[in-house]
Amino acid sequence: MRSAATGSEAPLTFDSSAIFMATTREAVSLVAALLEEHGLVETLAALEKEAGTLLHDGAVVDPAELERKLRALRVAHVPAASAELGDEDPLMAPFTGRLATALERTVSGAHASNVLCATFCGESRELVASGGADKLIALTSTSTGEVMHRLATHNAPVLAVAAQPDGGSLLASTAMDGRVQLHDLGTRTLLHEWRDAHRKYALCATWRDGENFATCSSDGMVAAFRAGGESGSFDKCLDLPLSHDHGVTSVGWGRGASAPVLVASVQDSHVLKYYDCAAQRLWSVSMNELDDEHVSFSAMHIAVHPSGKYLAVATDRQRTFVYEWGSRTRVRTLISDFKADDFAPAPRQSWDADGRHLYVAAGEATVALWDVGMERQVSQLVGHSAIVRGLHVCDRPGSRRAVTCSFDKTVRVWGEATAPA
């Protein structure tokens, strides 16, 4: 049997002495459900052909219920081994530092309602910009927790904020009405607003460098903006339709490449979309190792590895998959050990600067910190009392910090732990 993760052999093992606990039909039905859960559609089809009947009706499998029934049968799924990575690989590089897991500050007065997004910003990343359902962007000092300023320029809840890299003073923001804004944090002014950037929910904003940023929306579009002319003003330079039926949930930029390449995830799709902005070329890469068209999860948020070598894809099934950039080769699978609420918002994730650790907020009040190379959860950020909606790890060299925001209406800043993780 071939695994959807690596294509290698991944047997299902049974304790034959326990099969008497259920009828043969029940046991085979559970095996069929397990195959469906792991996307092994070709194996499922072969099993149904052998049995001469439809073993699974295609309904969504509840992983918790499936696990309970399998444990009752003492049936265990043995996952395929992860890809072998050398010590020189960024996912396996030695790490002896301290990670941002210690709560430094809780800011409870920045917003009057749910806080939906947050990022470090400012010349030395001394500020946190947070956006809320109250339609405001708050600028908070990381050292004192004082709200320094509020930007009241949006007419709808603020869904995403993204700071210009390399210490730039610009902040891009997006809102539920589809508008995109660009702010100068130095002067606390609105530089530009694109009212027609998207038709509805502008879900994500991300910078490539100091002169290019992109946004995506539930209208199925990706938009890109570029600085032009000596004045440094920004113009919309790209309208890229990726889906007529589903929203684009997340967008990112390739790193280390001379040509600007965008990658985007589309809800209810089995592919990631890549677009070369210079060559104006669009192509798709399947997330299925078997290269079939089965959709067993939705990609809800993507995060490009600091080296540009990998792409983390957080899904709606409490799983994060790590792929080689531009490839369907899956090198790591991170499975959360909690059950998110069915109505939880999309997961969020952020790589640590070391490129080995990944912070994942997947629909509950805690944030999981993963050693990706070892596929092992090493810590959690615990403190919020409601779903964590936003997450960002500081890119300032020499000082690891993370910021989270939540439906509990707070923003929290996390610093380096006192001992190595």
Overview features:
four-stranded antiparallel sheet, mainly beta, 421 residues, disordered N terminus, 3 helices
How would you describe this protein?
A hairpin with a 5-residue loop joins strand 25 and strand 26. The protein is mostly beta strands. The longest helix has 14 residues. The two termini are 37 Å apart. The N terminus is likely disordered.
Give a short overview.
The chain is mainly beta. It is built from 3 helices and 30 strands. The strands form 8 sheets. The protein has a 4-stranded antiparallel sheet, with no helix packed on it. The protein has a 4-stranded antiparallel sheet with strand order 4-5-6-7, with no helix packed on it. A 4-stranded antiparallel sheet has the order 8-9-10-11, with no helix packed on it.
Task: Look at the structure and give the mean pLDDT.
Answer: 84
Quaternary organisation: single chain
Structural class: mainly beta
The description of the largest β-sheet is: 4 strands, antiparallel
Number of helices: 3
